[in-house]
Amino acid sequence: MAEPKRISRIRKPEQMSLEAWQVALRRQFAQEQKFRVKNIGAEPVFSEFHVTNPQTGKTYRVAVRGERLGDNYCSCPDFATNTLGTCKHVEFTLAKLRRQRGAKAAGALVHSLWLTGQVRTRFLEKEAAIITETQQRNEKSQGTM
Ligand SMILES: [Zn+2]
Fold it and tell me: Cα–Cα distance between 43 and 63 in angstroms, integer?
């Protein structure tokens, strides 16, 4: 699988807003971490989690309420001060939950994407055929004039 381009921590990509860049950095960082996540609530997804960094031994409390920025909470100092509504612990937990749910949903999603692709390809082929036909007809009619 192709590696996505790494986002620079030092220089903001030109097409990105400052906020989007800071969120992307935390997502990128979360992908490279091996945090331990323990569900300490009652629900499988919208629950509370203890997220531990095995390297530092630090544990933070993450509350998952939704997929959007600002839906969730983390007790770490970065979350408290960055005003982004997310942090590497929140992003790590969301990614893990998506993978768990994804395992079940992946089959259906891949199939629906494949179908969408098929329909689109057929539509484009048909459109291309009509354009070619029209061009040929135009050329012919121009030739006879
Ligand atoms: Zn955090």
Answer: 11
Q: How far apart are CA 41 and CA 111, in angstroms?
A: 33
Ligand 1 centroid vs 86 CA: distance in angstroms? 7
Q: How big is the CA angle at 45 (ends 65 and 27), to the nearest 5 degrees? A: 70
Residue 111 is predicted with a pLDDT of: 43
**What are the tens digits of pLDDT across the range 108-135?**
444 444 444 544 455 556 656 666 666 6
CA of residue 73 to ligand 1 center, whole Å = 8
Global confidence as pTM = 0.66
Please give the distance, rounded to the nearest whole angstrom, from the Cα atom of residue 52 to the centre of ligand 1. Answer: 10
97 C-alpha to ligand 1 centroid (Å): 16
Give the neighbor-by-neighbor strand order of the sheet with 58-63.
Answer: 36-39, 48-53, 58-63, 73-74
Task: Encode pLDDT of 53-78 as tens digits.
Answer: 999 999 999 999 988 888 999 999 99
